[in-house]
Amino acid sequence: MDSNSFKIYSSTAELPETWDRVAVNNAFLQTPYLKVLEDSAPTNMECFYIGIFENTELIGVALAQYLDLNKLESFGERDKCIKKAIRNFVFKNFASHTLFLGNNMITGQNGYAFSKEMNFECISKLLIECSEAIVAYFKKKKITIHIVSFKDFYQECAVELKKNDFSTVYEFNAQPNMIFELHPDWKTNEDYVASFSKKYRDQYKRARKKCEEIEVKELSLEDIQLREKRIYELYHYVAQNAPFNTFFLAENHFSTFKKQLKEELRFCGYFLDGKLVGFHTLLLNGEVLETYFLGYDEHIQKEKMLYLNMLYNMTKYGIENQFKKIIFGRTALEIKSSIGAQPIFMSGFIYHTNKYVNKYIGFIFKNLEPELIWQQRHPFK
């Protein structure tokens, strides 16, 4: 452990040459994606890239994100209730400066990667030390970080972290990550549909019939740039109607993403009478297909069952291109389970830098996080 050190970078231009070799198994930690964050991050976000060294050799990489919630136009408009008003007041006044170790924009264990086997005693110590260094950096700038959160760990990792330096940090479980492990026997979309029980096969046929007038096209960089304003309108509607938000994407995010990731990002547009009424995006991450942001016209979505058809189309792409699994992320848990995704529970860790407030972090978190009630569907025979 004594030979390990870390360095925090604020620009991708400063990153060591071997960065992508260490991050080879995770596209969300490789420089093309980090450049997307650098060039089109949400206006209230600042990113930090952490290099972890053994002597002088880079052996680990990590991502941290600072969010200034004072700059946010809205925390989300879907829920209209007293709890939402209280939650918004608390966040504005006691948690407006938040530091995430990990990626707050996506779901999954995408916060760090190592090129060699590392024990969790070492990992937990490094993550805590990195967070403390960034908190100190902001303190010098007269900015007090209120909340520090370590985001998204699969259960086996969370258990190990809890045995070490995370033992005194409050562990929380948010909505599960919906992951679809694709059956190796499915070679075509027809194989997938044939595996449904009658109820869900009928649902599939009904949804497809509703969407017959919709034309689905993959968009190039030029197509995305031409429709940037409309794309943002569709994204923004969905984002604003989420139960809770800590950021909104920049308007040029999708064109910047396509420019950097090229064929690794698939952008599918949904057109009705020549007008863009929805879109979904997919990131090709090795053998894993990652769903990214989407958007749609509210009225077309209801009439044409657009969201459900998007889920079917993403699954079809995953099967036909022989991906092992699809990461569908959080939210809309029930409808995602109806197409075959399973809930995988993940943990996060969080603390408040004010020791008095931190004593009650568990109580505060439980009362601000709405209880999620949903019914898991089982679509297969």
What does the secondary structure layout of this molecule look like, with pairings?
Elements: E1 4-9, H1 19-22, H2 31-40, E2 45-54, E3 57-68, H3 82-94, E4 97-101, E5 112-114, H4 120-140, E6 147-154, H5 155-162, E7 170-173, E8 177-181, H6 189-194, H7 198-210, E9 215-218, H8 221-226, H9 228-240, H10 253-261, E10 265-272, E11 275-285, E12 288-296, H11 298-304, H12 306-320, E13 325-329, H13 333-337, E14 342-344, E15 346-352, H14 355-359, H15 361-368
Parallel strand pairs: 4-6, 12-13
Antiparallel strand pairs: 1-2, 2-3, 3-4, 3-5, 6-15, 7-15, 8-13, 8-14, 9-10, 10-11, 11-12
Explain what this protein looks like in three dimensions:
The protein is of the alpha+beta class. It folds into 2 domains: 4-176 and 346-368, 3-Layer(aba) Sandwich (Aminopeptidase); 178-343, Gcn5-related N-acetyltransferase (GNAT) (Aminopeptidase). Helix content is 38%, strand content 26%. It contains 15 helices and 15 strands. It has helices at residues 19-22, 31-40, 82-94, 120-140, 155-162, 189-194, 198-210, 221-226, 228-240, 253-261, 298-304, 306-320, 333-337, 355-359, 361-368; strands spanning 4-9, 45-54, 57-68, 97-101, 112-114, 147-154, 170-173, 177-181, 215-218, 265-272, 275-285, 288-296, 325-329, 342-344, 346-352. Strand 11 and strand 12 form a beta hairpin. The longest helix is centred in the middle third of the chain and has 21 residues, at 120-140. Mean pLDDT is 92; it is low at 75-79.
